[in-house]
Design goal:
This protein is an alpha+beta fold. 20% of the residues lie in helices and 35% in strands. An eight-stranded antiparallel sheet has the order 5-3-4-8-7-1-2-6. Strand 1 (14-18) and strand 2 form a beta hairpin. It is globular and about 35 Å long.
Length: 133
């Protein structure tokens, strides 16, 4: 059994998928530091998105900016890839949706389960308000 310990001082790595691209939160930045770019892929049958870190310049990858201390998140403009996910995996890209991002140390990649969006407190409050109207 593998135990993952939780630290109350660290937020969980999340990825937001929106019509314009993919946004990585602050907790993902430790993994992204020192990388030149990422390759994006998906497994349609398991509804998982893969983000492979690239440490060399590769033409198949999306470049990411140099991550400095004041950087809070990283956005990758990949509208075509997000549209591909929308068509093949049937995710809703009309509004930004957040997902947990697991990092596979051995493979050097994030694995994002697109069948399990994070239900945010803010969105549930909005639906409660709509129900009262």
């Amino acid at each position: 059994m593998t135990i993952q310990w939780f630290s109350p001082n660290t937020s969980l790595p999340t990825v937001t998928v929106a019509s314009y691209g993919i946004n990585f939160n602050n907790s993902c930045l430790n993994y992204l530091k020192g990388t030149k770019g990422v390759m994006l892929g998906c497994d349609i049958s398991s509804k998982k998105m893969y983000v492979k870190l690239l440490h060399e310049d590769e033409s198949n990858g999306f470049s990411i900016p140099n991550i400095k201390e004041e950087v809070k998140n990283v956005r990758i403009s990949c509208k075509e890839f997000v549209q591909f996910l929308s068509i093949k995996i049937k995710i809703d890209i009309t509004k930004p949706t957040k997902y947990f991002a697991d990092f596979d140390e051995k493979e050097g990649q994030f694995i994002v389960d697109l069948s399990s969006p994070i239900n945010t407190l803010q969105s549930s409050k909005k639906s409660q308000r709509r129900g009262r109207d």
